[in-house]
Automatic annotation (TrEMBL):
Functional note: Component of the Mediator complex, a coactivator involved in the regulated transcription of nearly all RNA polymerase II-dependent genes. Mediator functions as a bridge to convey information from gene-specific regulatory proteins to the basal RNA polymerase II transcription machinery. Mediator is recruited to promoters by direct interactions with regulatory proteins and serves as a scaffold for the assembly of a functional preinitiation complex with RNA polymerase II and the general transcription factors.
Region (Disordered): 1-59
Taxonomic lineage: Eukaryota, Fungi, Dikarya, Ascomycota, Saccharomycotina
GO cellular component: core mediator complex; mediator complex
Subcellular location: Nucleus
UniProt name for this protein: Mediator of RNA polymerase II transcription subunit 17
Designated gene of the protein: MED17
PANTHER family per record: MEDIATOR OF RNA POLYMERASE II TRANSCRIPTION SUBUNIT 17
Length: 647
């Protein structure tokens, strides 16, 4: 248990002999004195030197390293620190025991034996290596050419200057860093040792930074008073109670909001499920005003063949929590604003004015009544409120589209007495009456006036005209659907469709045809019946077949066939008006008249005269009643009256 320096000093003597360390008590070993006298035959000093024989150790010198000789007489106050220093820092003399020392000796003995075995292995390897070297030395060596010496690259002056500049820069940087570190240490030291710190400070630091400014002091902890501790505890408890109360209120409000939202959603979806059917087109959309996701309902007639593009015909289904009802609100912003002002709800009104004979003026003789959807009914239950709103929106957009097509068609009928007064009013004049088609805003005053008005003579006629207009618009829808189906199936033979709208033309044609027929009957009476005795006139039944029902009905598929059948129901309205009259002349033959129109508005009269022997004498057409009068006067005077006079 001695220091390494002490071992080295004890193991190596001045004569260079190495001592053998022992693990036994050195007091039991004593050197043996030499009793053999020197012989005369001993070699001299030169021989000893040549043979490598060294002198024997001195007489009385120990052959082993005995630490007891060095530390045996040392006092304990000096020996104990040396022992602790040799064992390392942190060791205590009180922790030393006999068992610990025995364990250390056993470990040291094991390490010595392991080192000895390693030395033996090294000796064996060295002997084998020497043998290999001897064998290789006996082998013939190959003569190789000397390797070419690599030319050393010479450094240029420019490279040297660059290296020198970078080295100087690195040195300056290191100097600056070390100076900053020295300044920091000096400033930190100035609070404890001002004189030593000021000696190493730079003049700039002394001027700019006061000494002892970089320092840290220990702040003593002051124990709070009992009153302060109680007050702090009360404040802490108060904040906790306030936080709990606010959390309770927040959770309560959130629960109420979630409950109200859940109830709102439940009512919304239950009403949507109750008041909508599979015929309604419902889809997801975003509200343009609020940006929220909602359900959209298509109330327009785009899927039914409508070509009206002035309004989208889409409403948003919203739940009104105040009224606890579902509302259908149009999606267009302009339409919503106009509906709030009450100007978007417009309906078609047809009025008939009759001309007064004495005065050149008209008197109201017929007017259409308000539809039931436009009049609020107190008996209507809330369950059907949303259906009523949807039906009302469909009715209003249908009326707008009807007026749109009427104005478009009226542009080509100005020469037939049709006048566009403004964007909401169209007037059609006939010889004895006048019709007005006007879009009226739905106001309380209009509703009250319609409810209080007395019935008039031509109210039914006005209602029939309005119903006919709506039916003709539905027919246009069906024709458009049929056209789209035929375009989607080009292999099927298609028929030509009328590109123009047929709304006013059939109605005007009916009225004008009646006027032309009345005028024709007057002409026949004046020029034939009043002149020829016993002559009679009869109206022949119409034998024209339906134009929609033909032999090609079985060519299309079932959908187109069904559309043809539905369109065929309106053939009597869409047919060009035609009336056939037959005037029987006694013993002079007969005259057949055919009154028809090529575009619903004009009139063409065909006249066919057959004599008594059924020979056709004349067969011609007239578009002017004055010419017709002259022709009838000629036939009666030349063929009827003269033949009777000859008889």
């Amino acid at each position: 248990m001695t220091d390494s320096s002490s071992h080295q000093s004890s193991d190596l003597r001045s004569d260079g002999n190495r001592r053998i360390p022992l693990a036994i008590d050195p007091n039991f070993i004593r050197p043996i004195p030499s009793t053999v006298s020197p012989s005369n035959n001993e070699p001299d000093d030169s021989d000893k030197t040549q043979n490598g024989i060294q002198d024997a150790p001195l007489k009385g010198q120990s052959l082993i390293s005995n630490p007891y000789e060095l530390f045996g007489g040392m006092p304990l106050d000096q020996l104990i620190p040396i022992i602790l220093q040799s064992r390392g820092a942190g060791s205590k003399f009180a922790d030393l025991s006999e068992d610990v020392l025995l364990d250390e000796i056993a470990k040291e003995t094991g390490s010595v034996e392991q080192q000895k075995s390693l030395d033996d292995n090294a000796n064996v390897d060295n002997s084998a290596f020497v043998e290999n070297l001897d064998e290789e030395a006996l082998k013939p060596q190959q003569i190789e050419e000397p390797l070419a010496k690599e030319e050393e690259k010479q450094m240029t002056q420019e490279q040297f200057q660059q290296l020198r500049a970078s080295t100087v820069q690195s040195l300056n940087l290191s100097l600056n860093e070390s100076s900053l570190a020295l300044e920091f240490v000096s400033l930190l030291l100035s609070s404890v040792r001002p004189s030593a710190a000021s000696a190493s400070m730079s003049p700039f630091l002394k001027k700019t930074v006061p000494a002892a400014s970089l320092n840290a002091e220990k702040i003593p902890f002051e124990k709070p008073k009992e009153s302060e501790a109680i007050e702090k505890g009360l404040v802490t408890r108060g904040w906790k109670l306030r936080s709990l109360e606010e959390s309770r209120l927040l959770l309560k409000d959130t629960h109420r909001a979630l409950e109200a939202s859940l109830m709102k959603e439940q009512n919304y979806w239950s009403k949507v499920s109750r008041h909508t059917s599979k015929k309604d087109v419902i889809f997801k959309m975003r509200d343009q005003e609020t940006g929220e996701k909602s359900l959209g309902l298509k109330y327009g007639y785009e899927d039914s063949g409508s070509t009206y593009t002035q309004e989208r015909g889409i409403a948003i289904l919203k739940y009104n929590s105040i009224k606890d009802s579902l509302e259908a609100i149009p999606s267009g912003k302009q339409q919503v604003q106009s509906m709030k002002k009450g100007i978007a709800e417009k309906f078609m009104r047809v009025r008939i004015f009759t001309r007064m004979k004495e005065e050149d003026d008209y008197i109201l003789s017929g007017e259409t009544a308000l539809d039931d959807l436009l009049v609020l009914n107190s008996n209507t239950s809330d369950e059907h409120d949303i259906r009523r709103q949807i039906s009302k929106l469909q009715f209003l957009i249908f009326e707008k589209e009807l007026m749109f097509h009427l104005k478009k068609e009226s542009e080509s009928l100005i020469s037939y007495g049709v006048t566009i007064e403004n964007e909401n009013k169209i007037t059609v004049e006939f010889p004895t009456e006048k019709m007005e088609f006007e879009m009226m805003s739905l106001t309380d005053e209009v509703i009250m006036n319609h409810q209080q008005d007395a019935p008039k003579t031509n109210d039914k006629k006005a209602s029939l005209v309005l119903v006919m207009l709506r039916m003709l618009l539905v027919t246009m829808f069906k024709k458009q659907i049929k056209k789209e189906l035929l375009m989607a199936a080009p292999q099927k033979p298609s028929r030509t469709f009328d590109s123009e709208a047929l709304l006013l033309r059939p109605i005007i044609g009916k009225f004008r045809h009646e006027n032309y027929l009345s005028l024709l009957q007057k002409v026949i009476k004046a020029y034939i019946l009043d002149v020829v005795d016993n002559s009679t006139v009869t109206q022949l039944p119409s034998t024209r077949r339906s134009s929609s029902k033909g032999a090609d009905g079985d060519v299309y598929d079932k959908h187109i066939t069904k559309l043809d059948e539905e369109i065929g129901l309106f053939d009597r309205i869409l047919q060009l008006p035609r009336t056939e009259l037959k005037v029987q002349l006694p013993s002079s033959g007969r005259i057949e008249f055919g009154l028809e129109s090529s575009n619903y508005c004009n009139a063409t009269t065909s006249v066919k005269f057959d004599d008594a022997s059924n020979v056709t004498v004349f067969d011609t057409k007239f578009s002017n009643f004055k010419e017709l009068e002259d022709f009838l006067h000629f036939i009666v005077s030349e063929y009827v009256t003269d033949s009777k006079a000859q008889d």
